[in-house]
Amino acid sequence: RVGHPAMTIHDAASAHFAHWPPGLPRHLTLPETHLFYNAEVAATRYPNKPFVVFYDTPLTFSEFRRDAERIAGWLQREARVQPGDRVLLDMQNSPQWLLAYYGILRADAVVVPINPMNRTEELRHYVADTGASVAFVAQDLLPEMQPLLGPFERDAFGLRRIVVATYSDWLRAPTDMAVPAFVSAPGVMLECEGLVAWRDVIQTDLEPGPMRAGPQDLAVMPYTSGTTGQPKGCMHTHANVMCTAVTSAQWLGRTQDAVALSVLPLFHVTGMVGGMNALLFVGATSVLLPRWDRDAAAQCIARYRITTWQTTTTMVIDFLANPNLGKYDLSSLISIRGGGAAMPPAVSEKLKLTTGLDFIEGYGMTETMAGGTVNPPHRPKPQCLGIPTFDVDARVVDPDTLCELPQGEAGEIVLHGPQLMRGYWRQPEATCAAFIDLDGKRFLRTGDLGRVDV
After folding, report:
1. Closest Cα to residue 145, out of 94, 104, 196, 219?
2. Rounded to an integer, what distance in angstroms lies between the CA atom of residue 339 and that of residue 314?
3. 31 contact partners, CB below 8 Å, separation of at least 6
4. Which residues pair with 414 in a beta bridge?
């Protein structure tokens, strides 16, 4: 990855505290708990409150905890998944995606989120590299995953079990929304050995054993392709993921009454944090769409009084180009944020005119479990990556000498903070090349270019 030199971050030294969000501490004390504890807390505090709304069907926090625990019980007792084992998760955004993610965590296993656009040969690498024996797959993606069930012809590895989810199982309430055909499709018969229907996993109603994993144990391993070679697994601990969940909630002032439009892909760390983990931490509600649909997005904002929307520049452009946008009440929105590419000035101006809100840009990567720098909500700066968040040290260095560069000069962005991955899975040389020591601290070389601004 190489970013554009015009991308800027606010001064990473103490000067950036002049723009710090009012009322927030400079240091963030993080919970030292298993990620699933967030589900237990939310279910205890808000048992009947919706955690997820999917085409007008709610999933309450208590239902979420119950089904995630059933999944964990099945993984441990039927699939013989052991602590630290890797489990693949290959679906579009859906209630089952969130349930599988936290069910895997509850079993003390490691979630390996998969891009649903991957084909069989790409999936073969994930199975072989992780050593996974179990995968959760949506039925629309099963044809790509099923060839990996059982030992490969030329290798000893392969999947033993594939849990097949049907999105329409979570269409339990009447809706006037336009439901995509792949979501409304009925369940299919599973006649191959090793295939297990999602509903059968839930109906076994098996209780999991006690949680054993701690903050420094692996929790999630998203893959990043980089620029060369096969994709590499980024090893993130419970502590890494907790850091970005809490940071996201605190930085944007989210409370239990926040309602988020979650349309970014959950397999990607940005959607994973903003559309799921941060919301569960505070007990907020996620209105979930499996794919981008500008009419459905506007309809959800109006119907559910959505307060926060995490998005991309491309989505915003399409959203504002909707000739029917004026029919929808968007007044509930109080925060629109995103990243991935700089927001063009003309688009941000139109967004401001339409919603009264500034677009809050941020910067992060798979290796940092999403955000490392984010614009202060009270003072967002267009075409800027923001300022380092809690306990993050962001610098711009010469890529060759690794010496810090003066303000305004373009160089490589390097990051230090509590959300940095442990390293690349089974890639010690790549891990060594990805990190440098500066002033006694471990920094990630992002490979992205930027410059320091004020």
Report:
1. 196
2. 10
3. 37, 242, 246
4. 395, 445
Token couple for 21: 């969000």
Q: For 34-114, where are the E strands, in sequence order?
A: 50-54, 57-60, 86-90, 110-113
Alpha-carbon distances of 277 from 149, 196, 220, 355, 427, rounded to whole Å = 30, 27, 12, 26, 27
Structure-token match 């996993």, residue found: 201
Whether 371 contacts 364, CB under 8 Å: yes
Instruction: Give me the pLDDT at residue 237, please.
Output: 98
3-state secondary structure of 15: helix
Q: Which residues does residue 10 pair with via DSSP β-bridges, in sequence order?
A: 453
Mean pLDDT in residue range 280-287: 98
* 59 alpha-carbon distance from chain centroid: 19
Instruction: For residue 165, name the pLDDT band (cuts at 50, 70, 90).
Output: very high
Retrieve residue 218's tokens: 């692996």
Tens of pLDDT along 217-229?
999 999 997 666 8
What residues pair up with 162 in beta bridges, in sequence order? 135, 195
Residue 29 per-residue DSSP state:
P
**The pair of three-digit structure tokens given for residue 221, joined into one six-digit string:** 């391993």
Q: Residue 1 has which token pair?
A: 């990855």
- Going by C-alpha positions, the residue among 247, 254, 215 that lies closest to residue 364 is 247
